[in-house]
Amino acid sequence: MRSLTYPRHLARQVVLLLTVSYLTGCASPAPSGTTTRCAQVNYPVYDPAEPLNRGVFAFNRTVDNYALAPIARGYRYLPDFFQQGVHNFASNFSEPKVFINDLLQGNPRRSVNTLGRFALNTTVGVVGLIDVSDRVGIPRHSADFGQTFGVWGIGNGPIVELPLLGTSNSRDAAGKVLSFLVSPLGDSDTVQTLGTLSLVGGTVDTRASLLPLTDSLQKLPDYYSAIRNVVAQNRAAFVLDGKDGATTPATGGCANGAADDF
């Protein structure tokens, strides 16, 4: 029976992910108070399918304007402790995939930090609702399969505007697809329920953190190219962070400090 129900569970998770993930980019929200350094993109952004991408972008923007952004704005009125708990829980649930990418990038120090954070926050931190690790000096860092591919030397490839998943390049888009398929915690009903809560809560929390940035970018003459350039700069910096392998996140300004959530 399990072999019959698993494909349905997987399909349901993928549909839910596609429904709520617009503009989150990395599925793991960045920790409060940290930003990824900016990397100057010294090559032209390769966007050969720009007319098609702009059409998909218009659809994504409509979905965002009428669904996700209003929810995110309402979320910002909730008590700070509630928002922080959602942020911590979603970040902690993403740590196993960060751990996998740390190993794939050949960074044992980072992997040990990630594993220690996950163990401590899941137990003492009540399933990650409280970030105990930060308080004892183990800061969080992000990693995903797109970053890993970049560390391995795989190029960006052309820009791809994914329906409901936003702006990306082909390398990072492949990383997102791989992330959907990887389930390091297994596929039990409990894990699937926690994963759904993490996905929905993390998506809303991340979108709320991006509101100041996207509100400012929408005032520019070409919102599509503005988003595309910010994402390109941020992802370039993210790959450099992976190559450096620092266990302490870099700080600095990048498009008002929020671009690391793309």
Helical stretch tally: 10
Lateral strand order in the biggest sheet: 1-2
Number of domains: 1
Distance linking N and C termini: 39 Å
Report the sheet-strand fraction: under 5%
Order of helices and strands: HHHHHHHEEHHH
Give the helix proportion (percent range). Answer: 55-70%
Q: Rg from C-alpha positions?
A: 18 Å
Biggest sheet overview? 2 strands, antiparallel
What is the number of strand segments?
2
Average pLDDT value? Answer: 84
Q: Write down the oligomeric state.
A: single chain
Uncertain segments of ≥5 residues (pLDDT<50)? 1-36, 255-260
Structural class: mainly alpha
What best-fitting shape do the alpha-carbon axes yield?
globular
Key descriptive features of the protein:
61% helix; 262 residues; disordered C terminus; single chain
Q: How would you sum up this structure, described in words?
A:
There is one protein chain. This protein is mostly helical and 262 residues long. The radius of gyration is 18 Å and the shape is globular. The model is unreliable at 1-36 and 255-260 (pLDDT under 50). It has a two-stranded antiparallel sheet. The longest helix is centred in the last third of the chain and has 29 residues, at 189-217. The chain is built from ten helices and two strands, in the order H-H-H-H-H-H-H-E-E-H-H-H. Helix 1 runs parallel beside helix 9, helix 2 (50-75) crosses helix 9 and helix 4 packs antiparallel against helix 5. Helix content is 61%, strand content 3%.
